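Q: Hi! First time asking for a complex rather than a single chain. Here are the components, and I think there are three in total. Is that enough to go on?
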Amino acid sequence: MKYFLQLVLAGLTKGSIYALIALGYTMVYGIIKLINFAHGEIYMIGAFTALIVGGALQITTGLPPLSILAISLAAAIFFSSGYGVTMEKIAYKPLRNAPRLTALISAIGMSLILQNYVLLAQTSDFLPFRSMIPNFPFLTPGKSLVTTTQLVILVTTIVVMVLLTLLIKFTKMGKAMRATSQDKVMAQLVGIDINKVITFTFAIGSATAAIGGVLIANHMGQINFYIGFLAGIKAFVAAVLGGIGSIPGAVLGSLVLGMTESFGAGYISSAYEDAFAFVILIIILIFKPSGLLGRNEIEKV
Amino acid sequence: MNYFLQETKKSVLSALWLMILTFPLMVLKVNIFESVVTLRWNNMIWIGIGTFFLSWLWRFLLDRKENGSGNKTQETEIPGKFSLRKSLNEKRIKIPTLAVLAVLVLAFPFMVKFYQVSIMTSALMFVILGLGLNIVIGYGGLLHLGYAAFYAMGAYSYGLLYLYWGVQFWVALPLGAVSGAVFGIVIGVPVLRLRGDYLAIVTLAFGEIARLLLENMSGFTKGPEGIAQIPRPAFFVKLSLQGATTYLFYICIVLVLFTIFIIRRLEDSRIGRALEAMKEDDIAAQSMGIDLAKTKLITFALGAVWAGMVGVLLASKTTYINPGSFTLMESVMILVAVVLGGTGSIPGVILGAFLVTLIPEYFRVLADYRMLMFGVALVVMSIFRPQGIIPRVRKRYLVGEDKI
Amino acid sequence: MSRTILDITDFSMVFGGLRAVDHVHMHIDEGEIVALIGPNGAGKTTLFNCVTGVYTPSEGDIRVSGSDSEMIRTNGKKPNKITELGLARTFQNIRLFSSMTALENVMIGRHPKLKAGIFGAIFRDKKTMTEEAQVITDSLSILRKLDLEKYANEPASSLPYGAQRLLEIARAMATEPQLLLLDEPAAGMNPQETKELDDTIKRIRDEEGMTILLIEHDMSLVMSLSERIYVLDYGKMIAQGSPDEMKSDPAVIKAYLGE
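A: Yes, that's all I need. Here is the structure of the assembled complex.
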């Protein structure tokens, strides 16, 4: 029983991280119909930024850990959004009207650039990440079941989810985002500046990914330049599973994926853990390409 | 003057922005163990200067692209303008050039050090891989990111056939090609209904699954340790390392020519046209009687055949294979060769393949920056020259008195 | 007695909650030129799409005349199969193979009538080579019929607009259809081009023996060309008959001019 609950928690935790990344994928796809291959790298950059800023602060100042955590988180969000927005301006904006294949190749190129940029600027080694999340005393009795970081991850994800939903539903920008994703031309005709909307979407998507990056770094205790790739692919699978373009779908898909991986690894085989994501992807795309919550897009002829 | 000022301002802003953006990663270096924080300010200066000039160039090129005649996906011939391609096609230049080339190629292994022969052989193998992927992407328009899986299939079919049944090179070669084709169809069936982006991701997923399977089925495939001592091709007798590699070099030359020959025939045929129609507009193609499902499967199979073949070549060249040689990175590199050289263009892909394999070899200095440069190449080519370095030239048909 | 080429009975197309086409009956006989008209959004292109296999009809039957004059039900068949049965179409928004030349576009139209496969492509046996030479000749002659020969080696996207529309028709003709479905062939054409199109379509019917069904908004073209007209509005067939009858039909006038 305890093992089962542990798996559930592990699954939810993974799922939450995937959700934070998947949100970025799904929002960008909804707006410009592009799979941002380089999105996983944004997540990785968030983790690295937090590591570096946090580490630097730890060494050079005597600030309390929670302040360091807060500052590193803010830094990660700021810089990841920066990279996301810059990336869009350089590699995607010129290709807005180009065939999808071309934009996709550009995205792949961007992914390579960012991965190797971090590799060269920093190191190829795994860098240890001392967790900055203090232990909550009230959790000690249940420590074997749920750790502090797990709880923090779950709570943070829920908070982000709620904030994002409020943003999309009630703010002017949120409405503009929805309009643009439904009909770009029409949105422009009613006066929406789609460049701003797209930039904002990338910024928000990158921000949530950055949060995911910081959380995972705290959770796993180490990071390296390659973590973006695998996490990115899985988050993408999650987004597709839930229905690409749908925010609740991204969350649902992520949780399903997280649980599947956790239970699959726990009960079937841990060697094939990564394969589950791929298998799910293939199954979903064959049987229900629009995902669990997505709408069937009918091509107009 | 105003223009100049404006452009300078933009470049300065870009430079400042990038300097800030890259600060944590490029400038800071943190060593937790020794509690040391290093500041590499010179990086920042380089970024600033580099961005200043590059952003200027970038904007200039973008402007030119927007105001230009739009992206051509192929060359249109302008009468009178000098064209290398045209002059090469004239009989009196073509034949001597080919003769010289042939002599150079044949004499090559005896003119250079052995190591160069080995490198050139790898490059030739990569050319075939590029040409194969080109069928799928350049003619069929299907973005395939798992091509390395077919490559792996070919290599492992030789490896396993040798391991369990002692099969030798010349038998393995056609079998490898066949296994590639079969696997191509196997991957093709589930993705029949997918388009564009989804197809790309799923093929990527298949590639990864293939690798994971190879790694984990240790009992059958020997897992990460791989299969060793795979025999080289024998020329009636077993050859030395030098001899066998030289032999392989000639075999590769023949196979490259063979590949080009077959692909050119396919290009100019009913099947070739069907593939292209599917790439241009699959709904219109279907309305013209083209069976999309069948054509897609054919595309995958035709593309995979070559990878299977090269897989066998790889196994016999290095005599050792393991799943690590067939990663996503490999698939991406082949993609870079095709995109960089010229999607859909045979000479383009050949050039691209040579660039991708030989530049890292001969410019060892840049070795660390290899992947970074490939990434940049993909982005830059996509934006400014999606047709590649040597774009496709379409066949001109004889119409009335028109001469080619 | 001319045989029926296309027979549509009680056909409906439902998308989610929307009934795009509602219980429509229609038939086309050999050698006719029939027009399908109606305000925008009436369901005309949807009907085309169902007939050509892009969509599967939700209700009803669509039947096409087979080689032995037996009527074959085409519901749910793939577009390429329906083309093989002798139906070819053009598109409302031009869907040419833009980087291929005009000649190559038409050559693709010959696809269903050819036999060569991979084997033929690689080995280039006599049969394949003869077939290939024939393809080029046949395609050129089709281009000639529509006065497009001069564009043979030009990329399709570089042709003037009117020529592109004609090229789509040429490409469809290359499949040797018994029924040619033209979706707004005159869209964007000036009066001169429209007049030429009028003559061209009549010529195609007379010289090639093709039956024609067209969707059109240009009323002068419709009146001049068609022998029978079907009128669709909000998915329902509100009238059918000769051009003269339609001109004075109250339901038709109401549909176009509103209340």
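A: Chain A touches chain B through 66 residues (CB under 8 Å). Let me know if you'd like any chain examined more closely.
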